[in-house]
Specification:
Blueprint (H helix, E strand, L loop, with lengths): L12 H11 L18 E7 L4 E7 L11 E7 L4 H7 L5 E5 L5 H14 L5 E11 L1 H12 L6 E5 L5 H12 L4 E6 L6 H9 L5 E5 L5 H10 L17 E5 L26 E3 L4 E5 L11 E5 L3 E4 L5 E2 L5 E5 L4 E5 L5 E5 L1 E3 L6 E2 L7 E3 L4 E7 L5 E2 L17 E10 L2 E9 L19 E8 L5 E9 L2 E2 L5 H4 L10 E2 L2 E2 L8 E7 L6 E10 L5 E10 L20 E10 L4 H13 L5 E5 L10 E9 L2 H8 L10 E5 L9
Parallel strand pairs: 3-4, 3-5, 5-6, 6-7, 7-8, 11-28
Antiparallel strand pairs: 1-2, 2-4, 9-32, 10-13, 11-12, 13-21, 14-20, 15-16, 15-19, 16-17, 17-21, 18-20, 21-22, 22-27, 23-24, 24-30, 25-26, 25-31, 28-29, 31-32, 33-35, 33-36, 34-35
Helix pairs in contact: 3-4, 4-5, 5-6
The site of zinc ion has 5 residues, from loops.
Length: 647
């Protein structure tokens, strides 16, 4: 893209969805009622044969005869809590609420009975989930353990089983294929989870903290089954926002002594980079991405992911000694001290081999269709391989985007939250096409509107190099997740990542007035995008310019206009400030006097006065134009002071 500003970016279908997802941040994960993308859900009472009796079915609002694709079914044991119905409206699934004492045998035949009762309702039989707590929890787990294939997943909370049942149950759950969520109170033991994992460390069991009658837990449970989308519809942009996109010159960097070629052929041509240095790597436990307190693994991507075809040879970018780290990872150490890490390849190089840049084949690309490259400097830090002068040649003409900006003014500070992303300089192929990467830098400035002066400048993220220890949630804000996010046991294939950044600006030292908050995202080549919004701050009062103040003339008794009287306890400074402001406002002959020096005045005050008049009438005439500004000004006789000193 060239240099013109405000040029729209090329948009594709996926980009639109992506932008929508990215923009969600402004209102968080919970949409207000009525703002959900889908129509509200609808509830249908249904009479099921057998002992189950009357039950309730909640459906997506759009679902009806004639438009009835097979949908996943969630059987909720126990009266369906209202939030669960509200959640049902947000995803495309059927929610069936049945009595809590429905046993495992009845539970197994429920989908069939439901299909008979409502023939137009089609259930995706391989996507039946059961949710319940307490007494119902055990029945659900017995069904999952005893009837392979009956359930795609189960979520239970408040489970209590005795020791011997637990052993039996854990043994059968260990070989179960359904995706299991065991929710427990914070104080719970987690014994069933531990026992199941002991029998099979790879059993598809996840543990979470919470009870399913709680709305957020229910939401996290359905999200981790992949039944709810990760994002909400985008908010409408604020009309007062200004945006400016500018294309940089691109990276016209020439090779230097420290630059290195690409690890794939042709080594002297750029390849698509589908994962940037600094990208978030998030694997959430059973938790909502906006609330990662439920645990997980969070880190910064410490290199670049270069798209490639399976089987392609991987070459070292610098000569040195190869070190095998398992079957898929090779490190090559330069004699000069830098080292390069190649990951996800099928390593073919011998451990300890001397390898030559762009010549020795160290391995081949695997089915993940990319090679990961990290550069470590002599300082041991991971450096951004895309910074000019590193991986060469590299050109990038697509600017990053700041897609949302939220400002919350607090007493003495402003909290700024930003959604920003970039797209690879060369489009990534396959499933990764159109997915975002992180900008290289995101920063915020605060500009005083009256003189255009930048009074604060603060980074939100800077991915030139990663310093350890890495503080993930201090850089990325809650609600951030990676491309293809993982929550619990569910992999949201194809879901674009969302990159949020947050910082707090300390505004206490600033004077009151209008300011512009400008967030700028930048790539390594200097392409940038910014978004601004104005904010009115109540800070320190505006300083009063020093002005010469008058004194009461020696041995004169005369009339004056009293603008204000301040108790001495407030200090002379306050009185002087008041007087200076009066001077600035154009009040003539302003001065400050201390009443203790004047025989006819009450002791203990500073008086801000204007003018020295021979008569009460002339003083009153002078007071009249001050009316609008100094409504309480009055005329006063001041007797000649006791002495000229002090005051
Ligand atoms: Zn990687």
């Amino acid at each position: 893209m060239g240099s013109p500003t405000l040029t729209p970016l090329p948009m594709r279908g996926r980009r639109t969805v992506l932008a929508a997802l990215l923009a969600v941040l402004v209102f968080g994960l919970h949409a207000a009622p009525g703002t959900a993308a889908s129509a509200p859900g609808r509830v249908v009472p249904v009479r099921l044969p057998g002992a189950i009796g009357t039950a309730e079915v909640a459906l997506p609002g759009w679902y009806r005869q004639g438009n009835n694709p097979p949908l996943p079914l969630v059987v909720w044991l126990g009266s369906v809590p209202v939030p669960a119905q509200r959640l049902a409206a947000r995803g495309d699934f059927v929610l069936l609420g049945v009595r809590a004492d429905t046993g495992a045998a009845q539970l197994a035949v429920l989908p069939g009975r439901l299909a008979r009762a409502l023939p137009w309702l089609r259930i995706a039989r391989h996507r039946v989930y059961a949710v319940g707590s307490g007494e119902a929890a055990e029945a659900i787990l017995r069904l999952a353990a005893g009837s392979p294939g009956a359930l795609a997943g189960a979520a239970v909370s408040d489970l209590s089983v005795n020791r011997s049942s637990r052993l039996h149950l854990s043994l059968s759950l260990a070989s179960n294929r359904a995706s299991l969520q065991l929710w427990r109170a914070r104080e719970g033991s987690g014994a069933l989870f531990r026992a199941t994992r002991r029998f099979n460390p790879r059993a598809p069991v996840a543990e979470g903290i919470g009870t399913l009658s709680d709305e957020r837990t229910a939401e996290a449970a359905l999200l981790a089954f992949g039944l709810l989308p990760l994002g909400d519809p985008p908010p409408t942009p604020a009309p007062s926002e200004l945006t400016a996109v500018s294309g940089g010159a691109g990276c016209a960097s020439r090779p230097t002594a420290r630059s290195y070629p690409w690890p794939l052929a042709p080594v002297d041509r750029p390849h698509p980079v589908r994962g940037n240095f600094g990208d978030p790597r998030t694997v959430f436990g059973l938790t909502l991405p906006a609330d990662p307190t439920g645990g997980g693994r969070f880190s910064f991507h410490s290199g670049v992911d270069i798209s490639a075809r399976e089987g392609e040879p991987v070459y070292p970018v610098a000569s040195g000694i190869a070190e095998r780290q398992g079957p898929n990872r090779v490190i090559v150490r330069e004699p000069a001290g830098r080292s390069f890490l190649y990951d996800h390849l099928r390593a073919t190089v011998r451990d300890g081999a001397r390898v030559t840049a762009s010549s020795t084949v160290i391995g081949r690309v695997t089915r993940v269709e990319h090679v990961h490259l990290s550069e470590y400097g002599v300082d041991g830090r991971a450096h951004n391989p895309l910074e000019p002068g590193h991986l060469t040649p590299y050109r990038d003409a697509t600017p990053p985007r700041v897609t949302a900006l939220r400002i919350r003014a607090r007493k003495g500070r402003i909290v700024v939250t930003v959604a920003a992303h970039d797209l690879p300089a060369l489009p990534a192929p396959g499933l990764w096409a159109g997915l975002p990467v992180t900008p290289a830098r995101v920063g915020v400035t605060l500009t005083r509107m009256e003189d255009g002066k930048i009074v604060l400048e603060q980074p939100l993220a800077d991915f030139e190099s990663l310093a350890l220890p890495e503080s993930f949630w201090a850089t990325y804000a809650r609600g951030t997740y990676q491309n293809f996010p993982v929550v619990g046991l569910h992999y949201f294939a194809g879901t674009p990542g969302r990159y949020l950044f947050r910082t707090t600006l300390q505004t206490r030292p600033l004077i009151s007035g209008s300011y512009a908050v400008t967030v700028t995202a930048r790539d390594v080549c200097g392409n940038l995008d910014s978004r601004s919004r104005t904010v009115d701050l109540v800070g320190r009062p505006r300083p009063v310019p020093a002005r010469k103040l008058g004194r009461w003339p020696a041995s004169i008794t005369a009339y004056t206009v009293v603008l204000a009287s301040l108790p001495v306890s407030l200090g002379r400074r306050e009185a002087v400030n008041l007087a200076r402001r009066a001077v600035v406002a154009g009040v003539p002959r302003v001065g400050v006097l201390r009443t203790s020096r004047f025989p006819n005045l009450t002791r203990g005050f500073f008086v801000v006065f204007s003018g020295v008049h021979p008569t009460a009438e002339s003083a009153a005439a002078a007071a009249r134009p001050l009316g609008p500004r100094y409504a309480s000004a009055y005329v006063r006789l001041v007797a000649a002071p006791r002495s000229q000193n002090g005051g």
